[in-house]
Amino acid sequence: SFENDAIAELMNEHFVNVKVDREERPDVDEIYMKAVQAMTGSGGWPMSVFLTPDLEPFYGGTYFPPRGLYGRPGFPQVLSGLAKAWKDDRTNLAKRARTLAEHIADEGRAKAAGEIDPEVLDASRVALVGQLDPRWGGFGDAPKFPHAIDLRILLRHALRTNDAGARHAAILSLERMAEGGIHDQLGGGFHRYSVDEQWLVPHFEKMLYDNALLVPAYLEAWLVTGDPRHAEVARRACDWVLREMSTAEGGFASSQDADSEGEEGRFFVFDLRELEQILGAKLGARAAEWFGVTSEGNFEHGKSILWRHDRAEAVATKLKVPLRDLEESMRDASVKLLAARSSRVKPGTDDKVLAAWNGLMISALALAYQVLDEPRYLDAARKAARWILEGMRQPDGRLFATARNGRAHLNAYLDDYAFTIAGLLDLYESDFDPHWIREALALDAVVADRFQDEDGSCFTTARDHEKLIARLKAPHDGALPSGNGVQALNLLRLADLTGRADLAERAQRAIQSMAGLVNRFPQAFSTLLLAVDWLAVGAREVVIAGDLESKSARDLLRAVRTSFSPQRVVAFAGSMADSKLVPLLAEKTPGAQGARAYVCRNWTCAAPIDEPAALVAALATTPSNT
């Protein structure tokens, strides 16, 4: 519709047209999405909303086709009808718009404070497990989205309650996604969502934030199961980001398009003839079985999306070849197919750098460094953090939301601060440079001053943000985690590291400010429930004392980082230590034979530990207040 000259002429004749990048302006998108949902009962993108000169919405919808179809009006009909209504009945349209605008603004002022139900974590577990697709994993019917935070809270539910059902729901979903076409089997990383329940046919767009959220989920699955396939999925997603999404300044681009040469998925799919041309007849036939490529194809025009529905053992049996030989040959085939694919016309890249999404990716890379012991990931995370803190920083310490080609602009939103703070804390637990904590505290001070409401929750925009028709809070999760939920956990982590009771108190108030909603709809608040889980389990403070470069220190850190004990902070008492900033470090000294570990709760420490195996055992013990 927007590429149609006749429609463009009609739009320009009757309307002032404003195109909004919803990724750069989530504040605008949030308000008018609520308007469309109120008017139509559903929402989605692309979205068209018609406003009065006072920016109040009186009509809207998602996709309007260029011609009427199946009872739906075409976009020219919509435009002409609205132009006529505005001319003939402007007073009523404006009145309707004012009522809707007030309704949206009231939602931002609504209060939901109370006490968190002690059973809310169990209610979340039951709700999420109950929504599981028992065959293909994931939640509900098609289209299916990854829901990474829901999977991570399920792993915590399983750890807290020893519930096999919660563990199964998370692991099954992660396995099926990794086997599916939503997972780029050659290049690594994940597409945006699956249009079917099997995770086979994706919407081929690749988003930075999806991959940033899925990397920690797969890392945690590896810690829980010991299955190296989960670690490999996380590793290949990180490698894709470093290879294809890095910008010259050190940040990460936002997304890659779904289509190339005018066709969605064209870059990613193969047919049998192409496999044979690239790999030869024998290896091509093996690859066809391995990746599910058929003569009729599983996609459009006889092409196939690569996926791994059949397990390696089953494919080896069918081909009558040893499993090890098959796996080695498929590694070789994957390298050749990826090289051949790279010669195709590539999908375009949206190279704007969003502070929020980069904060998520900094966390993902820092955690990948910790778990996989890959220094490249830490280097990339630090470089991106420096770009945000220096290249996307305003003179007064506030952040900009977005940057492109080195030019940053637009005042940052809550998500930009919350996700960046989380990334800085994960960086501190990676290299133990206190600089990251100082910067996290500086950014939190901006949040407290400019975003926090009197009840402890945070608005999505600052108090001096551009005036819109409403100022909202968005406490629940959407495509992105709730900024309120992430910030609540940030405050708990900072409180445990710094000993500042005011930060813990702010976290408690933030959680309680949303209790009424969380208690009613726990499955919509998985990010906030990560903070509730932190408090319910009782976080540990782990301190390693010694020389960070020594083998004994590395071995103790390895013991911590390969244990699934997510309710913890980790600090290091070494040459860079700042015990005034992190009082936990005071009087923590190495042992006579090398580095030493201290495991504490509420700043009360058990006997020092010198051996990695003993540290693993200490971290595996069930907390007394669970």
Description:
This protein is an alpha+beta fold and 626 residues long. Helix content is 51%, strand content 9%. The chain has helices spanning 5-14, 26-40, 75-88, 90-109, 120-130, 148-161, 164-179, 208-225, 228-245, 272-279, 281-291, 312-319, 323-342, 355-372, 375-391, 414-431, 434-450, 483-498, 501-513, 515-520, 526-537, 551-561, 612-620, and strands at residues 48-51, 57-61, 193-194, 202-203, 206-207, 255-256, 259-260, 263-264, 349-350, 353-354, 400-404, 407-411, 540-545, 568-573, 596-601, 604-605. Strand 1 and strand 2 form a beta hairpin. It is globular, with a radius of gyration of 26 Å. It starts with a helix and ends in a 6-residue tail after the last helix. The model has no long low-confidence stretch (mean pLDDT 95).
